[in-house]
Amino acid sequence: MQPETLRYRATHEWIEASGAERRVGISSFAQEQLGDIVFVELPTDLPRDVAAGDEVLVIESCKATSSVYAPLAGRVTGVNQRLADHPERVNQDPTGEGWLFTLEVAPGADESELLDAEGYRRLCEAEG
Amino acid sequence: MTTPSLLRTPLHAAHIAAGARMAPFAGWEMPLHYGSQIDEHHATRKACGLFDVSHMGQVRITGCDALKLVQAIVTRDVAHLGDGRSAYCAMCNRAGGLLDDLIVSRLAMGDYLLVVNAGTYEGDLAQMHAVEREFGPFDARIDGCRDDWAMLAVQGPEAPAVLARVLGGGLDPPAMRMISVEWRGQAFWLSTTGYTGERGAELIAPVEMARDLWDALMAAGARPVGLAARDTLRLEQAFNLSGQDFTAQNHPFEVRLGWVVDLDKPDFCGREALRAIRAGVCPRQQCGLLPEGRRIPRHGARVLHQGKQVGVVTSGGFSPTLDRPIALGLLQSQMVKSEEPLEIDLGRGATVPAVITPLPFLRAQPL
After folding, report:
1. Contact B232 A63 (CB under 8 A)
2. Range of the domain at B326
């Protein structure tokens, strides 16, 4: 996925800009902050309905434990099973092979809080 | 509000050049990693890692009564230390609380070099002066000389070969020695100590030599390793981290440091309190914990037995060598002996079962 075409949440998740079922992951900035990722706790109780901002899964890096949140309201329909054996893919290709889960976005979900690539870049610069 | 400015080591530019991600640590701006802390960890276990540990604090104690003063400061009997010998030691307050762990080396008669932790350097110096006043007078002086020295650790099975390439062959002293080495006409100290459990040395060199030494060691095959991997390397060996696995609220016996307390040596700070503690029951004990699964308990996580807190994780992390999470905990002593099931609270309602394991987690090559 081209990072330029994605939408971003201020908590560093990305989501595909359009489609009924969209992939979600963490940004390159986020994976860099986390350092080596050693475990992605993939949810098993799927499908699961979530509100925007609900915790969907947990990532363990050597440095820290981090929650990944739903960028929009909807239904979590699937996870990237390849991360079970290769969590490092999130470091290597965060917006591609390292995607985390798929979200069926609720009709009428409020996307106004999401940032485009340029807005997200400014946020990252501010966070240093 | 202003951020207090961070201290920089003489190798700051070398870290930037090597692509380091820098982070604050104990008041210093230090390299956290150079890309992947896991790769750096493996490189140290399998080959040779190069660490900038210039943030560590050096204190020189010299004079006719230098030994007497050092003896009053540390809990271990260092009277037997000959020239060029080093000993791992602890220093305590009057209540027997652990202020720091440190390496004491005898450079010559009446001349000792103490290497203490970065975050405790100022406090340790104050404590040393307080001991000097209380137990003295001594014909000795205490010189905090951190700013004069850079310190580089060269660690790993290939460290002796890397050191030989740079410094010349035939230089492979056994562990816990401190020898003077000359390189390009300048002298520095080579200490066969470390914080990884691997073979190798720590080089204590004048600040102006640091960059040349760093570059020469890199050229000889050492790979730069940041503080993040240094932490997982020491955790696999269950080496305590001062300020994290113990503070002044802990005494040496409960964090497996009873072996550096010599109650029968001449008087030292904390002796009476430690004698009383030793005679009593030790309510808490440090132990190794293996959590189930791959979630990683962190410093401060509660250890539970049937829902009740029985201890706390003091260090938790991912062990690259064992490919699993590991943790050091401080637990109620009766829990350590029993085989009762334990759980670690990961926060947000998540807990993970854990079992007690013998330490160290890893047995690497002896030094």
Report:
1. no
2. 283-357
